[in-house]
Amino acid sequence: PAASAVLKKRLVKLVVNFLFYFRTDEAEPIGALLLEHCKITKEEENVFSISFIEEPERKYCFECATEEQCLEWVEALRRASYEFLRRSLIFYRNEIQKMTGKDPLEQYGISEEARFQLGAHRQ
Amino acid sequence: MKLNERSLAFYATCDSPADNSGFLYKRGERHTAYHRRWFVLKGNMLFYFEEPDSREPVGVIVLEGCNVELCDAAESFAFAIRFGGAKSRTYVLAADSQAAMESWVKSLSRASFDYMRLVVRELEKQLQEMSRGLAGGAGGSWKPKPLEPEQSRERLPALPAIPPKENGCAVWNNALGAERPPDTSGCASAGHDEEENPRPPPVPPRRRVSNGEAASVAESPSAFCRLHEHYSREVARLRQDWQQRQRGPRP
Q: What keywords were assigned to this record (chain B) (predicted)?
């Protein structure tokens, strides 16, 4: 159910950093939300919302079947962004380097990759 | 298919650092003519603009489930982004030099979310194995304090160097009026009930002396997400303390 007063039943699928939504009997998604720079908020029981940094008042609300399911979704969505993944990677790299003195990315030949650097590309 | 285009455009044009950017020639869909476009790679999204200062992208290519390969086009320094699937299009791009082409092919082929996730899981596994191996032994400590080994391992700071502004996090937090304890300036988190997606990993507060709580986390593998949750509670508590000590909200 997306950002309207009316709740519509939708099949929702999290694939990488996209949240796809389908009409329950259709194979092609109606739409998708890119989950970067967004905020996942636990609302009232069984409900969570997604809002985006450039339009914080607009909330995409989702009602789940159970509270447990709702919390699972909140957790999953908060970890769904590419940026979160990138930070985890940098964190682990750092940790391992501290413990072993070696850069774990060297074995993959990607230690110089821009996207894995701490505070890369200051603009 | 609908897409939250405004959010995409925001992601494309915001301050967050790009993983690669530059001019490339893009072959048109029906015509064989090439158009010069300004390309910006962020995460698994390849945006392209008319000009570097355009306010919004002309288009975007989502780099999941694709192959990046050199190609035999008439244009020199050409490469292709090829998608599987019957209706899928192959994007042919061309750079200005051999070096530029190689740089793009490299960064595009590692841009997918899946690739990132693979590497993260590998590192996570490595870290877990090391933690188990070192349990009870002397772990590396970022602070020369005589903390117990398990605790000192968990105390390793996550990312003190990433200023939240680079990810647009500071903007978000300021908009919410969230207050941050001065010590943990590298961490924008404001308590678990205000968790937002772009939150940087929390920095363990430097002031804190070892306590029992860190020891309880040390027993389990130091998975990033678990630490994330754990420190969010600490930060929430710290923030509460700090707020009580302040006279008024920070600007």
A: Cytoplasmic vesicle, Endosome, Golgi apparatus, Phosphoprotein
The question of ipTM being above 0.90 is answered as: no
Give tens-digit pLDDT for A58-85. Answer: 888 998 888 999 999 999 999 999 999 9
Cβ separation of B167 and A83 shorter than 8 Å? Answer: yes
List of residues 6+ apart from B183 with CB closer than 8 A: B205, B206, B207, B238
- Confidence (pTM): 0.65
CATH of the domain at B31: 2.30.29.30
Q: Does domain A11-82 have CATH number 2.30.29.30?
A: yes
Distance CA B115, CA B174 (A): 33
- Structural domain span for residue B71: 5-114
- pLDDT recorded at residue B88: 81
Assigned token pair, A35:
């989950």
* pLDDT, position B50: 94
Task: Give contacts of B 169-228 with A, CB under 8 A.
Answer: 171-172, 175-176, 193, 195-201, 222, 224-225
